[in-house]
Amino acid sequence: MMTGMRRNCIALIPSLVKIPPSKALSLFNSSMTNDFQHSYQSLAIILHLLVSSDKHSDAQSLLLRLLSGRITFPSFNLSSLLNSLTDPHFALVPHHQALLFETIISSHARMQLHDPCLFYLKRMIEIGLRPSSRTFNSVLLCILRSNELEKAWKLFREFKSSNMVDQHSFGIMIKYCCEIGSLDKAFEIMNQLQDSDWKANVVIYTSLIEGCCKEGEIDRAKELFNVIGQLGLVPNQYTYTVLINGLFKNGLREDGFNLYEKMKVDGIWPNVYTYNCMMKEYANTGQMDIAFQLLDEMRTRGVACNVVTYNTLIWGFCQEMRVSEAEELLATMKGAGMEPNLITYNTLMNGFCETGKMEKALSLFERMKSLGLLPSLVTYNVLISGFSKAGNLQVGERLMLEMKERGIPPSKTTYTILIQCCTRSGNMVRAIELFHSLKKVGLSPDIRTFGVLINGWCMKGNMKEASKLFESMNFEPNDVIYNMMILGYCKEGNSYRALRMLNEMGQKGMVPNSTSYSMTVEILCKDGKLEDADIILKDMMNSGHQPPISIKNLMSECKVFSGG
Questions:
Q1: Global pTM?
Q2: Mean pLDDT score, 15-34
Q3: Domains of the chain, first to last
């Protein structure tokens, strides 16, 4: 049977050569559906026809089918196919040879196969063909998308002075460096661009501004924005939005609002991303009325909302505990023909959990699953946290079991949430079991996990176990944990250990909270250690804490009784 198919395939070859390329491709495709086993020769012929007829997209589509396995050959090797195609028998002119290589390179780039991309780019250069800037840039992008910065950097430096590298090549490198937080390298490439025959455009400046904003270098970002104007370039909507967002995230709220007004004065009207950024800032401070004014302005100006717009407003309502209005907004969103995404559901579920409406949260969870949306780790953590705060450990653990069954491994946060639920109810046995389970699955407890357990033991009055955990931490305790320990020792009546912890905090540059100071003074007074209590009281006031009247009165009474 195979021999027959092979003969039929060979019989097709003369037909492929004689008819127009489009018809040849159609014949080739139809033969594939009839289970014909093609050879290198038949594939080389059809690719030759397409390339020599400048049908680049058809050739690329065929190669993509080959690379993805939708067309199969016994012992397929692309190098062998390339050798067949570059055989003198086909007599491809240099232009078509270059087009063939570029088709192969772009097909591999589409499949995110960066090593073959690089191999065929260099092979192309070796045989005297010159890749276009577009092809070179597609290889550069493919390498960077594989997070191979050093490999991309080496390629860029090697061909920086060639005609393949253009303004876009510099922009690709700068943007990627900014995305990974490598600002120094981004500015190094920017300096090289300015020394070349190419000049930076507004897109490149915008990438640098965004990179500076992400790294908190807001003054540098503002300086770059001013340079754009000085060079006679015009900032676009994205440039303004990136800087406005950066100003907000770095706490420069008024500067962000001022830049938004300047944007409109300069005749650059906000787009949906700008509006979303502004709404987020107003929602963040509870100014939902102004956020909705912006929504109305969007509609008036014909700027279409997107899912992020609604998610931002739903988040704002949930932050304000106005979950009923958030729920109404979900219905409005659907009515507008917009499908809520996982973030929408997670946000609203979190709102229900924070307001104790656990039945609604669970109902929304089930509805989300029925619509085909798959819950994420965040989804489960939101629900587990909600049920844990409600004291329902049983449902919390059931949800953790469900997430495991779905192939979502619980995170450190998941375990910590459940441990906290146990400690709140005083179930330290189960809390410790979960703590050991966390370590058993290869996770390392963090400072919050230790803090939750230490607090549990302190609340139970078991300072021996709390101290064991405190000493077992392989990182520095923070002020929260120190304050827990001080409070625990004070409740136990151990003034010596409470004072030692307080002094240790001071030595490490930490400031105890008002409760730690007050309770330590109180326990020292009860133990008759008035001199120590007096020193702590003075330290408390010097650190900016105002002692409660009750503590001042206690000190006065103790001094009277002691005859001081």
A1: 0.79
A2: 59
A3: 167-269 (1.25.40.10), 484-564 (no CATH)
